[in-house]
Amino acid sequence: MNDLAGHRPGTDSGLLSPVWSGTPVETATTDEAWLQAMLDAEAALSRAQAGLGVIPRAAAETITRQARAASLDLVGIARGAREAAKDSAAMLVCHRVLVRVESDLTVVAAALAGLACRFADTPMAGRTLAQHAVPTTLGAKAAVWLQLVLDETAEIVTRVLERRRLLDGTGSA
Hints:
This protein is mostly helical. It has 7 helices and 2 strands; from the N terminus they run αααααββαα. It has helices at 17-20, 31-51, 57-66, 74-80, 83-118, 138-160, 165-170, and strands at 123-128, 131-137. A two-stranded antiparallel ribbon has the order 1-2. Helix 2 crosses helix 5 and helix 5 (83-118) runs antiparallel to helix 6.
């Protein structure tokens, strides 16, 4: 088992490296990003508790100010983290990744819109279940792809990114 010996900031232990390598999502999924997400969840919990009068507001402010992954022992904290903190961190990491994915989908949608316009009159064979169908245009095909991307982008925004409000005030999902 890898105990992260020799761990360098900004890298990760390798679990997801082959998947994310070289992508904008990579920085949102490093070990430090996971630890920071756990700390962010704990800081949010302390602010919620302060709002309810469970802990002093000054304590919540100190916790929030000190909750920085760069100043802590990554391995020690990861091993001792509460399951609730890990779960909340997972939701925060997902949110941060999906913000990047949503941005990428916006770029893809713009490119597909350009293709749909550019090739609006370019004929091509229609296909249905691997068989020829009524002729269509490449532009129409690109428009279908565009609609799929727009639908998925809307799904991310409405079902995932907006759920972040659950974490903003409570510190848990």
